[in-house]
Amino acid sequence: MLMTLIRRELLDNLMTFRFAAAVFITLLLVVANTIVLLKDYEQRLTAYNTATQESHEKIRAEKIYSDYLGKLVVHRPPNPLSIFNLGLDKQVGNKIEVYHAFVPTIWDAEKHGADNPFLNLFTSIDIVLVFQGVLSLLALIFAYDALAGERERGTLRLVLTHPIQRGYILFAKYISAMLCLLVPLSISLLLSIILLTTATTVALDTDDFLRIGGIVLTSLLYVSLFYLIGMCISAMTRRTSTALMLCMFVWGVLVLVYPNLILTAVDIVPQPNTQISAYNQIKQMWEEWDRKNKRLLRNDAVLGPLSQNGEGWGFRLKGGEYSFLRDEDKPSILLYFHQTGFYAGKIKAESEPHVPRVQDYYRFYNRETVNTVERAWLVRKPALEAIYVQPANLGQMLLKFSPTGLYDAATEAWAGTDLEGIQDFFGTVQRYRRAVVDYFYDKKIFESRQWFAADEGTADWEALPQFAFHRSDTSINAKRALPDMLLLLIMNVILFIVIMLIFIKSEV
Amino acid sequence: MWHITKREIYDNLNSLRFALTTILLLALMVTNAVKHLREQPKRVQTYRDAVTESSDRLTAHADGSLFKLSQYGPGNFYKKPSPLHFCANGGELILPDTIEVDEPPVFATDGEGNVTLQGVWSLSYPDANLQNKSVGPSVSQVDWAFIIGYILSLIALWFTFDAFSGEREHGTLRLMLANSIPRHTVLIGKFLGALLSISIPFALAVLVNLLLISTASTVHLTTDAWGRLGIIFALALLYTSLFVALGLLVSARVQQSAVSLMILLLTWVTLVVFMPSTLASIASSFSPATSFDEVWQQQNPSREDLWDKYDEWLWSGALDDKTLRGKSAFFTENAERWERKHEERLKYRSSQVDRARAITSISPATLLQHLIEGFAGTGFERHLQFVENTQRYARQLREFVADTDRADPESLHILGVREGISKKPISPESVPKFEDTFDLSRDFNTAAMELLLLTLFVLVLLSGAYLAFVRVEV
Hints:
The complex is a heterodimer of chains A (508) and B (474).
Chain A: H1 2-14, H2 17-60, E1 73-75, E2 95-97, H3 127-143, H4 148-153, H5 155-161, H6 166-198, H7 206-236, H8 240-265, H9 272-298, H10 303-306, E3 320-330, E4 335-344, H11 355-399, H12 403-415, H13 419-442, H14 474-505
Antiparallel strand pairs in A: 1-2, 3-4
Chain B: H1 2-13, H2 16-64, H3 66-72, E1 77-78, E2 98-102, E3 106-109, E4 115-118, E5 122-124, H4 144-160, H5 165-170, H6 172-178, H7 183-215, H8 223-253, H9 257-286, H10 292-299, H11 306-309, H12 311-314, H13 321-360, H14 364-376, H15 379-406, H16 440-471
Antiparallel strand pairs in B: 1-2, 2-5, 3-4
Helix pairs in contact in B: 1-7, 2-3, 2-4, 2-7, 4-7, 4-8, 4-9, 4-14, 7-8, 8-9, 8-14, 8-16, 9-13, 14-16
């Protein structure tokens, strides 16, 4: 009996104009956007490859160790799944410096030179956005007359004269409509995956296909939720025109108005004191570091005069060519440090006796620097969380009151373009910095002659640990996406029960 | 005709959609006003503080001497916040609101750390805002541009999708056409009816919004601003009529109102939501993947090194005319090059943006967005205008220094070096002050093309609706 009902509903839906239009418009939008997004991805990949190559050469041109800020740079590769959900992939910086005097974070990252930041004025698009707008609309269009239409035509009465449970009728309608909606979803996804796999630049592995599977599953839950919303409205109203109108209103509110309105209305401002106090604390640590260094230099009979009692940059050894100051002071991201040093091409014999003292000093200086960074990081990390991550999470949470927010968050998590996915990369960079520092300790580079002089052997950048980044496992993506998917599922179930209750109690 | 219009309005006033529309628009407009009231005073205060600091610096420099003024220049420049910020946010988070005046670069110091060779100030244009480190979800702000562009257009379709198909379903269309009314009268009647019924809740919401904003003492709207608001309101009506015409066109062609609504909604989603983003993506993928610095190097391959060119004068401490002139020329040329590079970079980037803007103008939603931004004095055009204002002022200030120097017969008239410039004290009041202005007529000129395009869209759709309706069989 159920099969008969499903078949009837299926035929009813498939033979309509709306079905043809739904398939056509989804295909058109998804394919057109995939092509555009693919091009955009390839461009970002090219920029990434060029930049990586450039940095590779740049660091190797450096002869001494100390002057490597801005030269040891790692780049964030674009995520191929950003085609499905762009998330933060394009917005966040993709170039980050590795240096022992600060811990690299997402906020320290910059953009490649080829990027035009002004182009961020335009809204960006991804496949999930297309589904978000179009599939929800289609689901409502399929649903609005499911019950109200039959009631109007009188066929509902006819069906109910047969000995069928009302739940079966609902279920049959739901199943057949979902099957119909699956058609545009799967065909368009199939086409975009074909486009992706034919592009030589995009390398998708098994894990990526699993992730795409996760995105499809989330899309199904999302579509089903909207279908049930439409059905609920349909069950509650007497006339199809009213149902249609209400459906459109609900769609407009959930998809368009709510997400924008809520974030405009709720003013998410972190406590201003957090930033100021954390910044001052960090600054104090560095000032203490500075005093310590200067005290040491002032009290030293040899190094004092060589460094103008700590006021100059580096040491005035004969044969020194230039001295430098690396200085960062960005209160908004709590970045504060300074480092001085100098470069000597060939140290002359008369200065040679001072060299061991200078090396000794640099061992102290660099150790102090690394320790100060560690201490500052203990303050900086929670403060950055409070200033940036917590408001972002709060905003995300507010958006989740609408199914579109849940859908977006879950697919972002699957694609790995959400905040956590991006943070994975910066976590890897932080570990890489640690590895570089450890390498400097192990090989005694901080106190080596090559730290400042290029006469007895130059810096060996080949031996430095290499940076490698792999996206997190699918299981981790799944773990991040599951809570939101579960919420979507629960909403589905609740709505289905509500519809059931309304429909069973309603008179025909 | 008025009969039909009146009938339409009465019909609509009693409908559910009218009530829902009113609530929706009111909610959006009130949120918009509240947000503006919360943020505008802060924005104005920040601007005032920054300007005070900047003019203090200018005064301090002028107080010092003409040389100090010519060397350090003015303070940073700040973009004046538009009082109509609530109409269009205009990418506030992305566009920078300052143009920095770079400190004179130090070229050389002696053993004791004293500066021996120092250049003159130059302008540098900050990149799109890198201060914004937010990692939260990005959504569009609820400003008038959003409310009109997205919501009002959707409402227009909502009011018109069943204009003819609904009447046909009820059979009242046949009845109406049985009377001796020409079809175009029916069409125009319907058009005006729908437009007026949408205008009523919209006007109401706008009124509440403006009432909230204008009664607050912290935010002040000038006569000029009210004129601009009038224009934006008219734009909203023009834009709405575009979608009303579209609704009538589809409604006349399609038999069932449900199908009509579906077609309209899918068209709307494509036109308003997807087209701007997709087209912008296409436009930005046209732009080459080379960074500006590479382009700059290609354009200026054999750039003569300034250090070599002026080498013989830079290191001598002599005070003769030739050395001073050499140094002066070095400083000026250095600052000019620096400034030109920044300017070219801005031009390079804004030409990409302009191209993307031109391509996205195919979508009426983007057209409206640009128009509202133009009249509200926010957005990209406004930013370029700010840059232009700054450049004009920089020229003016440099001319002022040259003129003041020329008026002093004792001076050697060599700018940029202490020994060559007039030593007479100058009064800070006589130094020109920077003021960031924006005038309506100029905005109108830049908007004319887009306005024309929008009107053209409306006319085409209206005549389409007319043709469709005339030929339709009842």
